[in-house]
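Bench notes, afternoon.
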Amino acid sequence: MSESPAERHCSRRRMGLPRQASASNRAMPDGLQASCRKCSAEYYRQRQEAKGKSVRVKVEWERNKSSSDGWSSYCRECRAERNRISYSKHKCGLAPAELDALIAARQGVCCICPIAPAEHVDHCHETGRVRGVLCFSCNAALGQFKGRPDAIRRAAAYVEGNAWKPTLVAPGVYQLPS
């Protein structure tokens, strides 16, 4: 298998990964470790546990220039969860339990395409009423159609292949489907 300059082969996973996924190692000819960072970390953890030592779990923190120490108050995962709760509460008026109940009522799948996970709250921008939970793609599509049912029906007819075929009513007079 030939490697491209932007790709490197991980020896443990036996797959090609971006070069940025490998840590540096000056002893190697190309200056990179044979395995990717994740595999190297896992191997290190296994070796330390075999010696009876514990390895601290790495928590990712974000930089915050306005704080005194330069770091955020919450780790990335906690901050993402707080933002999700805050967004659903302020934008849609849903408490976390209500949002979880909405997702559970649909067995965690999108209302429109029952293949993707439902993670985004769909609501009417005029009334603010919550319609349901959708996947990212379906929610974005409804947003692009601005929630107009007539435009959505025309798009569905177009995709099905029977839209905008004019009918000849009289010589030179065509009628478009409604």
